[in-house]
Amino acid sequence: MRKYIIVLMILLGVILVLGFSQEELKENVLTLNDKPVGFGEATTGGAGGKIVTVDNVNDFKNYAQVQEPYIILVKGVIDTSKETGQVNIASNKTIIGVTPDASIIGWGVYLKGVNNVIIRNLTIKNKVENPKNDAITVEASQNVWIDHCTLSSDMVVAPEREKDKDKVDALLDIIKGSKGITVSWNIFENSWKCTQVGSSDNSTIDAEARVTYHHNIFRNTNSRNPSVRFGTVHIFNNYYQNILLYAIASRMGAKLLVENNYFETVALPITTQFESPQDGYVKESGNLYWECGDNNITQELKELRVPYQYELDEADVVPYLLDKGAGAGKEVEIK
Hints:
globular, metal ion binding, lyase
C-alpha cells in the first residue's frame, strides 16, 4: 500500500511541477454554451433554435439545409457515400456529435456563402472514392467554429505512395475570403493535403481571410498544416508529429503569427517560400522543435496583433494536453 501512495505522490508532484490545473486534467466535457477563442469568437451557431437528433442522412440534410436556426445532435454514423456531393450546411446551425461514434462518412460537408455555423465532436473521413471533395469546405463564409473533430482520409502518407496523393482532396479548405473562423482542438491525420487558407495564387479575395488554428494535432500528413495565401492567420499551441514535407507555409504575402507550437519529426516546420511567385510573412515565437529540419523564413513579420483575448500554454505541455483533449468522441452535456 505504501508503494502505491509513494507513486501517487510522485505523479502529483510531476503534475504540479508541469503546471497542469485540475481542469486540464479532466476529460473534456463539451456543452452547448461553450464559446470559441480566436477570429471565430462571434460564432453562436444555432443558438436559440430547436434541438433535434438525427441518425440518418435524410434527417441530417433536412435540418442542416433549412433556413431556420437548429442545434443538430448527431447519433452514430451518417453515411453520405450515396450522395452526389458534399452535404450543404445552411446558416445558423450547430452540428454536434453526442455519441462516441458520431461521424459523417463519405462526401463530407460544404459551407458556401453562409454565416454562423458550428461543427463539433464529429469524425469526418475523406474517402479515396471522392477525389474532388474535402472533408469540410468553407467558402465565402464567416463566423465558423470547427472544434473537437477528427478529420482524416484513408490514404496512407508515405514516400512510396506519393503517386496516389491526388486520389483524395484536403481535410479542411477555407477559401474565397472566409473570415471569422476558429479551428480548435481537432485531430488532422493521414492526409497528403491537410488544410489550406486561400484557394490559389490568383485568389486575391483571400486577403480578407481571418483564421485561428489552436490546440490541434496534425500527424502523419504531408503538407498544408496549414498552407496560407494572402490572409491573416494565428497559429498557436498546436502539436505537429511526423510531417513528411512541411508543416506551415505562408505564401503570397500572407501574414502568420505562429506561437508556442510543438514540432516533432517535421522535415520543414515553417516556410515562407513554397510553390508561389511571392513569399509570405511569419512572426514565430515560443515554438519547440524535436528532431526537425530548419525553418525557412525569408520574410519576418515585425508585429501582428489579434483583436481577441487568448491564453498561451507553454509549448512543452502541448503534446500532453492535446493527446488527452483533442479530437472527437467527447462527452456532451445538453443544457
